Amino acid sequence: MNILLATDGKAHSDKATKYAMNYAKLFKAALFIVFVVSPKADEDKEKMVQNGMQVLDRLKNDAKAEGVDVTTLLEAGNPYESILAASDRIKAEAIIVGTSGKTVLDRVLIGSVSEYVVRNSRCTVIIVK
Questions:
Q1: pLDDT per position as a tens digit, 97-113
Q2: Which of 5-9, 29-33, 108-112, 121-125 has the lowest mean pLDDT?
Q3: Bigger pLDDT: 9 or 96?
Q4: Which of 30, 45, 74, 107 has a 20 to 30 Å separation from 56 between CA atoms?
């Protein structure tokens, strides 16, 4: 069984990360963690890639410490499409994403990725708030 955790490394993703690790242990699943570097013209791409690599390294170490079989994926592109493409590629049985859902603006900006993944995924999607 393969599961995919989609993360941006921000605080609201921490609960989803813990959930994904527990889920992987419970079901003896392989955990794949994807970080998507989204193409934004006004941001330093190299800095974004470095940040993504740091987040993935930290999460990989955390997962290994928990005894979870983990593979990290650094993707570039639209987060919506990249998450679904990674899910299809690894034949995920579940995608786990986090959302803060604090305000209407958060739901529009952060929740839009979760909503798109839920509506378009071919597998189960678990949203951790």
A1: 987 665 555 555 545 78
A2: 108-112
A3: 96
A4: 107
d(CA 75, CA 51): 12
Hey, what CATH class is 2-128 in? alpha beta
Tell me how far apart the alpha carbons of residues 59 and 34 are, in angstroms, rounded to a whole number. Answer: 10
> Half-sphere exposure (CA, 13 Å, Cβ side) for 105?
0
Q: How far is CA 105 from CA 8, 58, 112, in A?
A: 17, 29, 10
- Rounded to whole angstroms, the Cα distance separating 61 from 57 reads 6
CB–CB of 90/6 below 8 Å?
Answer: no
How far apart (Å, rounded) are the C-alpha atoms in residues 79 and 64? Answer: 25
Domain limits of the chain? 2-128
- ∠ CA 21-71-12 to the nearest 5 degrees? 45
